[in-house]
Design brief:
By secondary structure, the protein is α+β, with helices and mostly antiparallel strands. The protein has helices spanning about 5-40, 65-85, 95-100, 110-125, 135-140, 155-160, 190-205, 300-310, 315-320, 340-345; strands at about 40-50, 55-60, 105, 170, 175-180, 210-215, 220-225, 230-235, 245-250, 255-260, 265-270, 270-275, 290-295, 325-330, 335-340. Among the domains are: about 1-40; about 95-180, T-fold, CATH 1.10.3980. Bound molecules: adenosine-5'-diphosphate (ADP) and magnesium ion.
């Protein structure tokens, strides 16, 4: 073979080798990309959506599955529960159906569970948590952001109170009846339950998924940051702007809920009328301006924070510790009270 021909063959071989090499790299990259997409990654995916009348943020990471798909499924689950438990929109709401029934209604297991839990919290908080204030809440216009809000007359309030209160709710197994035309409004507990269910779903898809759900300051942890660090959570200053915080807690697991008079309110003659009611008076509760509860599950933290808000700092709230919960209450003068165990969450 001539020297020039040998050179040609050599050249061709180099070109072929390069093509094979580049193709291999391309295939490798494509496979890696595909695996990353289908198995998920260590990066956090964030998804914001309006559910329960508030901006809900899901932050999730999974090495096993696509975190975006997990976040989508979680939002879907929360929306399902929002419609199911909506007191004032027909849609698919079991609660709307109950409120408009003329006799006992047999509900599904999930609804029976949440109603029973609500009644349990009513009993242990001396009615501070009350899931049957629908008539009162509607009267004040807090049934929807679009309803015109006004201060009702004392006669109107007295009348609404006759058709309010958890003593009007009867549940035997799955059969529920409402007496005195009372309406259920599970707004103080349903969001917490829905977020818990979303977290449960994420763990079902990937038991090692991590992240959290923040539903307007009510937060449940899916798992610690990068699998090992606690999430730093700011507690809103009830008299500051949306970005102002009065403290931080660190959570690797569990849940935290805050009820405040700054979330939904209107003002008349310089007086603030907000959305959490004292079932004894029929007026917005006045003992505190903010109440925070840390518990294992958000359903419990949610109900207890609403109760603590109504009760103010008291023996009952201090007793939450016996239920495995910790509390912080800010009274009407701005004074801050905390259970001993609460302080432990403030250290990283
Ligand atoms: P948010 O939903 O703003 O986080 P809460 O968890 O405290 O705040 O729930 C407030 C909602 O609970 C109200 O919008 C209403 O639907 C309902 N609610 C109002 N007063 C009470 C009460 N005393 N007990 C239980 N639920 C209440
Ligand atoms: Mg609550």
């Amino acid at each position: 073979m001539r020297k020039a021909d040998r050179k040609d063959v050599l050249k061709k071989r180099i070109v072929i080798q390069s093509i094979v090499f580049l193709t291999a790299i391309l295939i490798f990259l494509a496979v890696a990309l595909w695996m990353n997409f289908s198995r998920g990654s260590t990066a956090y995916v964030e998804k914001d959506e309006f559910v329960f009348g508030t901006l809900v943020r899901v932050v999730v990471s999974s090495e096993k599955r696509d975190p975006k798909a997990i976040a989508d499924a979680m939002i879907q689950e929360m929306k399902r529960l929002e419609s199911k438990f909506h007191p004032y929109h027909d849609g698919n709401s079991v609660i709307f159906k109950l409120n408009h029934a003329t006799g006992p209604v047999t509900v599904d297991e999930e609804t029976a569970f949440l109603i029973s839990k609500s009644l349990y919290y009513s009993e242990i908080t001396a009615g501070a948590f009350d899931p049957a204030l629908g008539r009162l809440i509607k009267l004040w216009g807090f049934d929807s952001p679009d309803t015109k809000k006004r201060v009702p007359t004392s006669e109107e309030i007295a009348k609404a109170l006759e058709s309010s209160g958890y003593a009007n709710v009867e549940i035997h197994s799955k059969e529920v009846s409402l007496k005195n035309h009372a309406w259920l409004d599970l707004g103080g507990i349903a969001k917490g339950y829905a977020v818990d269910q979303a977290v449960r779903l994420a763990k079902k898809i990937d038991e090692n998924a991590t992240g959290f759900v923040d539903a307007g300051g009510d937060i449940a942890i899916i798992g610690p940051k990068f699998g090992q660090f606690p999430w730093k959570i700011g507690i809103r200053d009830p008299r500051g702007g949306p970005q102002d915080i009065i403290g931080v807690v660190y959570l690797s697991e569990g849940a935290i809920a805050t009820s405040g008079d700054y979330e939904r309110y209107f003002e008349v003659d310089g007086v603030r009328y907000h959305h959490i009611f004292d079932s004894k008076t029929g007026y917005p509760a006045r003992k505190s301006i903010s109440a925070t509860v840390i518990a294992e599950k958000l359903v419990d933290a949610d109900a207890l924070s609403t109760a603590a808000f109504v009760l103010g700092w008291s023996k009952i709230v201090e007793g939450f510790v016996g239920l495995g919960a910790q509390a912080m209450v800010i009274d009407a003068e701005g004074k801050i009270y905390k259970t001993k165990g609460f302080v432990a969450y403030e250290k990283e």
